[in-house]
Design goal:
The chain has helices at 32-41, 52-57, 63-72, 86-94, 104-108, 110-119, 148-154, 179-186, 202-208, 223-226, 232-242; strands at residues 2-10, 13-18, 21-29, 47-51, 77-80, 99-102, 124-131, 134-137, 142-147, 162-167, 193-196, 218-221. By secondary structure, the chain is α/β, with parallel strands linked by helices. The radius of gyration is 16 Å and the shape is globular.
């Protein structure tokens, strides 16, 4: 069970949004590289990074910040936001990313995801961001008719490394992970699932250690780590004991 600390990038800074709203951004660090190194020093073994500007623009907007993160940490990094073409994927992986996260393009062009998985095995994850059970795209600005499970099932045999499932209605508001929908998804697909959105406190960490949650690959935490609601040492110790 992996606890992924999150760095969300906006205008080159580390921020957290409320409910995915770019107008409700709180800046937590103006040095993404320093933040990445801090997470590594705290004992985290992975890093989850999102280029928020890129998600809206459809192409990288925080490339320098991602480069700084990759230079600052030896931890594997997964990146999402604005990655829409095979050229984008290849360019980022060549810089040393552990894996890319495809979201909007996974809805628009499932064949590209399959091709990417074939060309870069183990390096491609799919981000499923949901609002009221339906998949949102274009930086969460649009909601599609596609359900979470229908989208996940599209890629069952594609070789996707993981699904990052985000409940937008809980993102950035410290409401707790939507365990019911997250575990329902994990129990209906063979692809490893990572929970995202709402991880709020040590109570959620304790929930991660319970037997039914062990089906998950892990969970992503952002605001709760930045504002001290989750103690990194305590959280990582609990998860290691559970494993």
């Amino acid at each position: 069970m992996i606890l992924f600390p999150a760095i969300d990038l906006k205008d080159g800074q580390c921020v957290r949004l409320k409910l995915g709203d770019m107008n409700q951004a709180t800046v937590f660090n103006d040095s993404p590289g320093a933040q990445a190194k801090a997470f590594e020093d705290q004992g985290f073994e992975w890093l989850h990074v999102v280029d928020l500007d890129g998600a809206f623009a459809g192409e990288s907007r925080n490339g320098a910040a991602v480069d700084a993160i990759l230079a600052a940490t030896s931890n594997p990094v997964q990146l999402g936001g604005g990655i829409r073409t095979l050229d984008h994927i290849e360019a980022w992986l060549s810089k040393g990313l552990a894996r890319v996260i495809l979201g909007t393009i996974a809805v628009r062009d499932p064949a590209l995801v399959r091709q990417a998985c074939a060309e870069f095995p183990g390096k491609v994850a799919v981000g499923i961001d949901a609002r009221s059970g339906h998949v949102a795209v274009e930086g969460w600005a649009e909601t599609s008719d596609l359900t979470v499970l229908d989208m996940a099932k599209r890629f069952e045999d594609a070789g996707v490394a993981a699904i990052i499932y985000t409940d937008i209605d809980r993102d950035g508001v410290l409401a707790g992970i939507n365990w019911d929908s997250t575990l329902e998804l994990a129990n209906h697909v063979s692809i490893p699932v990572i929970a995202s959105g709402g991880l709020a406190s040590m109570t959620d960490i304790q929930r991660m250690t319970q037997g039914d949650a062990q089906i998950l690959e892990g969970a992503i935490s952002g605001r709760a780590l930045y504002d001290g609601r989750i103690d990194p040492t305590e959280a990582l110790t609990l998860l290691k004991k559970a494993a």
